[in-house]
Amino acid sequence: MDPNKQYRIFAMLLTVILVLAAVCLLLGLTLGIVKTAYTDRETETESDTETDSQTADMPTSITPQEVTLKETADAGMAYIDEMIFFGESTTAHLRARGVLSGGTETQQVWSDSSGTRMLSSKITSETVIYPPTGEQLTVAQACEKAKPTYLVLSFGQNGLVNFASDKDTYIKNYKRLIDAVRNASPDTKIILQTVYPVCAQGNYSADVATLNQYIKTLNSWLPEIAAAYNNVRVADTASVLRDADGKLASSFDNGDGQHLTVSAYEEILAYLRTHAWQEEE
Fold it and tell me: Do 85 and 222 share a structural domain?
């Protein structure tokens, strides 16, 4: 055979082989990308479903009408001493006001260096400063170490305007936090505080009356959240802070219409003491 013809045939075969190899490589990369994207979506969906399923399957014998803590005899400061508090700046200020055992050095308040927190989708992944050691831990990790008898939560002022129009997100994020705590410390009893009223507009995009109506809306959802569990209750601590118009009483306003005075925290703690957790509930 003519050597030139042999060379042309060889070159054509080599070209076909290279083209086929390139096509196979491209198909492999494309399928890999599709598989990865699908897997990520599948994992996210499974994770969300698992959390919802855990909540839905949780046996509970309590109704939304029964979850709010009722008036009791004064359980005393020893009862308060069993509590850990976690929430927004109005919770973090419990330490600054010195109203808990240990005063301004109390180890009963969990917060980060900013002194506030929002009930976002990252609520279980963001860290707090764990007071006994100074470690940066998630709330679940802190609960696993401390095994608190009671964990008192307070969320809703941060993100209020958005939450008021997005019930699903507010409830989902609250349940995400509750589930993380329950998994880390199953025996911890969780108390959801009603959202405190405000009496000045501050940096919000609505007037005071509208803001307090939003707060009332969020508070109406708390029993629904608590009723999904056997060890979650609602404490209507906000009720002792409102004036006749439903606003934060001026005597409890620290000056910005949102944050609280020492006397306000004393009223809150007195309410918790006289609305103590009763096992028969």
Answer: yes
